[in-house]
Amino acid sequence: MVLTALVLFCCSTVSGDASQPPVPRLSVEISPTTIATPVVKESSSRPDAPTPKSAISSEVRSDFDFSMAGEPSAPAVQPALLSPVKPATTESYETPRQRKIWYGLLVASHGAAAFDAWTTRRAVTGGYGVEGDPFQRPFANSGAIYATTQVTPIVMDYLGHRMMRSSHSWIRKAWWVPQAASASVSFGAGMHNYGMVP
C-alpha cells in the first residue's frame, strides 16, 4: 500500500510538458488502520466540484417511458395550448346589433340634451323661470348652455360602452341603462321647460 501511494505521489509531481503551470504539491497522510485512503490537502483554494445528480426516484421513473421500442408514451403534463384561452380583449362581447342600438341611444341622449338646453334658455331669457341645476345656472343666459348640457350624455355614452364590453354578464345586460336614463331625464326636463312658456 505504501509503495502504491508513493508511485501515485511521484507520478502526480512529474510534469510531462514544461509549458504547463506547476501543479501544487499535495501532502498524503497514510494511516495504518485504514485501507489506503489518502487525505489530500491543497495548498491553494480551488472551487468545489459540482455535486452529482441524484438518481431518479421510482415514482418519477414510472411516469416516463425510457425504452426506445414502441410508440412514445404521453407526457404526464399536458401542453398549455390544449386548454381554452381567455381572449386578450373584450371586443368579442360587443355585437353589431348592440353597437347600432348604442349609436341610436347616443343620438337620442344628445338630441334630448340639446332640446333641454334650448327650452331652458328660452324659459330663462323670457323670465318664466330659473335654472334649477346649480352647475348649469351660470350658463343658462348664454349660448354656452348648449355645450355644457352635452357633458352628461358624453359621460353616459362612455359608461354604456364600457358596460357593453364588460367581462361580467350582469353588467353587459344593463349596458343601455345609462344612456336611456340620460335621454329620458333630459327629454323630461325639456318638456317641463317647454310647458312653462305660453
The amount of beta strand, in percent, is: under 5%
Give the integer mean of the pLDDT values. Answer: 76
Instruction: Give the number of DSSP strands.
Output: 2
Number of helices: 7
Q: What's the arrangement of strands in the largest beta sheet?
A: 1-2
Summarize the biggest pleated sheet: 2 strands, antiparallel
Order of helices and strands: HEEHHHHHH
Global Rg: 44 Å
Distance N to C terminus: 128 Å
Structural class: mainly alpha
Weakly predicted, low-confidence segments: none
Shape descriptor reads rod-shaped
Structure characterization notes:
- 46% of the residues lie in helices and 3% in strands.
- It contains seven helices and two strands, in the order αββαααααα.
- A two-stranded antiparallel sheet has the order 1-2.
- Helix 3 runs antiparallel to helix 5 and helix 3 (96-125) packs parallel to helix 7 (177-196).
- The protein is rod-shaped, with a radius of gyration of 44 Å.
